[in-house]
Every structure is written in C-alpha cells, then in structure tokens.
Write a structure and sequence with these properties.
21 helices; 544 residues; alpha+beta; four-stranded mixed β-sheet; 60s Ribosomal Protein L30, Chain: A; globular; 2-methylcitrate dehydratase PrpD
Length: 544
C-alpha cells in the first residue's frame, strides 16, 4: 500500500508548512487548519462545523485575487488550450465532443463553446465541460500538484469557463469573475490534496476535483454559502471512484474521469440552486466518505484553508508539464536528455548492447505507480496503450535516453514503442525505492521537495554512470522555470498543425486579456480548428 503523507497542523506562515512560501512568490499568509473527523449521528455535527461548509465559506469570501495569481491563471488557461488543441483528433476527445454536440443549448442561458468548433456552435454547459475536460486531460500534459494525494488542478478550468459562457449575458459575468472562480477551484483542490489522502485507499484523485469545481462555480455565480455547501456535498458524493482507471491496462477513462467530475460539479450546482440538498455530513458522517472509503471511523485530518480575507494562493503551489507524461517522469526525462548529450553512444542503435542495467532510485510513489514496483507487465509491453506507456517510467526513460528528446505524439507511436533496440534497452531498466527520495517527495519545505531520482547505469565493461535530478527543468525551482513566454510557446507548438496562424494569435490575445474580458468576449474564449480537420475522423454513433 502506498503510504500517505499528511502535513498536519501548520500554517502558510510557518517556515516548513505546506504553502508556507510559494516557490514563485515567497508570500507568507496565515491559514486556519480545520480538524476533520468522523462523527456519530447522535453527535449532530452542525453544518457550520463541517468541512463542506468551510469550503463553501472560502468560495463566498469576496477577497480580491493577487496580481501573481491573475498571471498564473492566465498561464493555465493558455496551457489547457494548448494541450487540448493537440488532442482534438484523438478518439476519446472525438467521442466526448460528439456526445456534447448532441446536447443543444439549454433554456437557462446561451450555452457554451466546444473546443475545435466554431464559437457560434453552443451546447449545454455541463456537456461543454465534459468535452473540453476530456480534451484537456487526454495527453496528460497540463498542470499538477502533489502532496498527500495527486491532482491536476487545471481540470477546474473547463467547467468554470463553460458555465461562465452559458450565463455571461444573463448574469453579467466577465473575465474578472472567471479569474476569481478559477482561483477558488485551485485553492480548494490544493488544500484538500495537502491534507486528505485518497490513493492509499485506491480512491481516484478526482474525488477532490468534484468539490473544488463546485466551489469554483459558487464563486463564479456569487452563490450563498448554503447553496455551495449543498453543491460541494453532491459533487463529492457523485465523484468517488476507484483507482483502477490508473492501474494495469490503463484505458481512455483516465482522460474522461476528471471531465466527468467537472460535469458532475455543474449538475450538482444546478440542483443546489434549485434547492436540492446533499448527504450530510458528507465527509464526517458515520456512513460518509471518510468512515467507509478513507481512513475509517477513527480518522482525523488537518485541512488548511485560507482565513477570511486572505488571498487564495493555491495556484502558486502548482506546476505545469514540459513533457506529455506522468508528472514524476518530468524530471527523469530531463535527466535522460542530459545523459543522452553526455554519453551519445547510449543513443545509438547499438547502445543497448553497451548497457548491463539501469536502475532508477526514486520515491515510493514513482517506484510503485509508474515504475517496476507496480508489478504491471503492461509497463514493459510494446503493444500497451498510450495511457499505459505514459505511466511507465522504464519506457519513458529508454526513449528519452535514446532520442535526447520527448514528443507528445512521436514518442508514443506503436512503431517507436516496438523498435527492437528500444525494447532491448527498456527491459534493462528497473526502479527501486530510495528512502531519501521518498522523504524529499513528502517534504513540506518547497526548497527540498523533489520528484526526481538518482540513475545508475551499469555498462557491460563495468563502468557505472551515476547522475541525479531533484525537480524538472520547468518546475519553479528547476533549471528553466516556465514563465509566460514558455506557456505561449507551448501553445504555439501544440496548435501549429491544428489552428490557423490568425486563430493562434486571436486566442493568445484574448487569453492574455482574461481579467478584462467583457461578457461577450467570454464567448470567444475558445479554439477553432482548421477547416475540415474535425471532419476527417471516424463517425462515432451512440445513444445520443
């Protein structure tokens, strides 16, 4: 069982507490940690003392968003659109899009746009959140936050934009409202991920996404605490699922799961706005999530949330990906590129003949989830799905070492995975848990926290090559931290074969003016593909 780390009762103002100093800003803020435990029904835990209520209180807090957070929200909107653009012709995305297009605009608003389609083509917002969420998640290429559990906080963005577009005119929503909502979504998800471990109990991490997206929508629509409380509870109740979607032969549901959580959040908010209620207390009840799905009736968690009036800085603790692969692979891809340049013979077709073994000493999580410790034979199978290969560090390291590069498409093609010299090298790569790397993975000190490892390459002549890396080059503390220009370049690279040059410039201009966008301009926050591109795929028919 993968151990969970719980940072305990700390505040952002403490030197070693989670969020104590953003790696980007160094800003110190106080937060309040809330003790969350199971309560028997006769204890009658008051709503104001329940975690879902406290989440709702954060969502209704009118505190302004800092300039740093605004800047990062813009970056992540660009990042999401970039990875979505590159995935628009992939089967899971086509499937989700065709489902969404079968659900026309509902009567309550103007509808929302679907990535790839003309902005005049609108669908019901929950289905736009679904289609766009799948597009964002498909390539495993957007942002991440890792603590007691795992997360991709950018998954909060599609439901926020979908609902904002749908209700922009009716409620007078603007880009500023979208920025504030996204800041809430990130804050709640990051805080839950810091405190409550799901994966130890084989519960998928999207169980933190449903509540965070519901809270974000509460901020967007300026809903009252009671309504958001009910929506958070419903969203959690409907988005708890097992981690089998990330185990063994990983399927396309890995991309669909976060989008489903976003869709459920939209629907939960709709029901709550109509006065419907949720199971209460959803976290703390004796038959609730904690008691039966997580640590059990004796569990206690310390969940950090901003104090009233304190800015929501959670997004500043998150980091994006330079490479399309599981986050724990990011730093090791960078290390493989470095070793390729320093030892070019390893990249030659005869390179595998020079290698006796490659051992990657790394954290518990990396070893057991994407390494040989998972005991998944699919991680060494050249015919495995792309979803499986992007969770196989032996495969990823082999290809990056040989090619000195990583590409979101070419590196996963069947002919690349089946190359004889790659398979030979791949089979010689294993991982091993190293206690020090596990400790650093769970460190609460941003300067020490690490997601990399140490690589030992033993050659057939007895030579041993040893090198290590702590964080990815693109990490805020890495060799080349991502800044706005990098997000823009990532968008240009991934969109160049999908969008017309003028469409690329139009979207980038709009996204970078996000806080200033009018209600009408929100409807244009979309990417429209080259003519005929989406029509070239297979026709997919289902129930709708």
């Amino acid at each position: 069982m993968v151990p969970c780390f719980r940072p305990g009762h700390r505040s952002r103002g403490q030197a070693n507490g989670y969020g104590a100093q953003s790696p980007i800003s160094g800003t110190l803020l106080s937060v309040k940690t809330h003790n969350v435990r199971v309560h028997r029904s006769e204890e009658n835990l008051q709503r104001e003392d329940q975690l879902a209520w406290k989440i709702a209180e954060v969502a209704v807090d009118p505190v302004e968003v800092t300039d740093e957070v605004v800047d990062m929200v813009i970056n992540r909107v660009i990042d999401n659109a970039a990875v979505a653009a590159a995935s628009l012709t992939r089967h899971p995305v086509v499937s989700a899009r065709t489902q969404a297009l079968a659900h026309p605009v509902s009567i309550g608003g103007d509808g929302a746009t679907v990535f790839g389609k003309d902005s005049a083509r609108r669908v019901s917002p929950e289905w736009a959140a679904w289609a766009n969420g799948v597009a964002v998640r498909e390539l495993d290429y957007h942002d991440t936050f890792l603590a007691a559990d795992y997360s991709h906080p950018g998954d909060n963005i599609p439901p926020v934009i979908a609902v904002a577009q749908h209700l922009a005119d009716k409620r007078g929503l603007t880009g500023r409202d979208v920025v504030r909502a996204i800041a809430t979504g990130y804050e709640i998800q990051v805080d839950l991920v810091k405190a409550i471990c799901l994966h130890e109990h084989k519960i998928d991490h999207v169980a933190h996404l449903g509540p965070s997206a519901a809270a974000a929508l509460g901020t967007l629509l300026a809903l009252d605490t009671e309504t958001i409380f009910q929506a958070v509870g419903q969203a959690l109740h409907t988005t708890t699922a097992t981690r089998q979607s990330r185990k063994g032969e990983i399927s396309s549901w890995k991309a669909h799961a976060p989008a489903f959580a976003g869709k459920m959040a939209v629907e939960a908010v709709d029901r709550a706005m109509r006065g419907e209620t949720s199971p209460t207390p959803i976290y703390e009840g004796e038959d609730g999530v904690i008691a039966w799905m997580l640590d059990g009736p004796d569990a206690q968690y310390e969940v950090p949330l901003p104090e009233p009036g304190e800015a929501k800085l959670g997004i500043l603790d998150t980091y994006t990906k330079e490479h399309s692969a599981e986050y724990q692979a990011q730093a090791l891809i960078d290390l493989a590129r470095k070793l390729h340049n320093e030892y070019p013979a390893l990249g030659e077709p005869e390179g595998p003949e020079l290698v006796e073994s490659i051992v990657i000493h790394t954290s518990h999580h990396t070893h057991y989830v994407i390494g040989s410790g998972a005991n998944d034979p699919q991680k060494y199978d050249p015919s495995a799905s792309r979803e499986t290969l992007d969770h196989s560090i032996p495969y990823i390291f082999a290809v990056a070492l040989q090619d000195g590069a990583w590409h979101h498409s070419r590196s996963y093609k069947p002919e690349r995975a089946n190359r004889a010299d790659t398979v030979e090298l791949w089979k010689k790569i294993t991982t091993a848990e190293d206690e020090e790397w596990t400790r650093r993975y769970h460190s609460t000190d941003p300067a020490e926290k690490a997601f990399g490892g140490r690589v030992e390459i033993t050659l057939t002549d007895g030579t041993v090559i040893v090198d290590e890396i702590a964080v990815a080059d693109a990490h805020p503390l890495g060799a080349r931290p991502f800044v706005r220009a990098d997000y823009v370049q990532k968008f240009r690279m991934l969109a160049e074969d999908v969008l017309a040059p003028e469409e690329i410039e139009r979207f980038l201009d709009l996204a970078q003016r996000l806080p200033e966008l009018s209600s009408a301009e929100l409807g244009e926050l979309n990417i429209v593909t080259l003519p005929g591109l989406l029509a070239s795929g297979p026709e997919l028919n289902g129930l709708f």
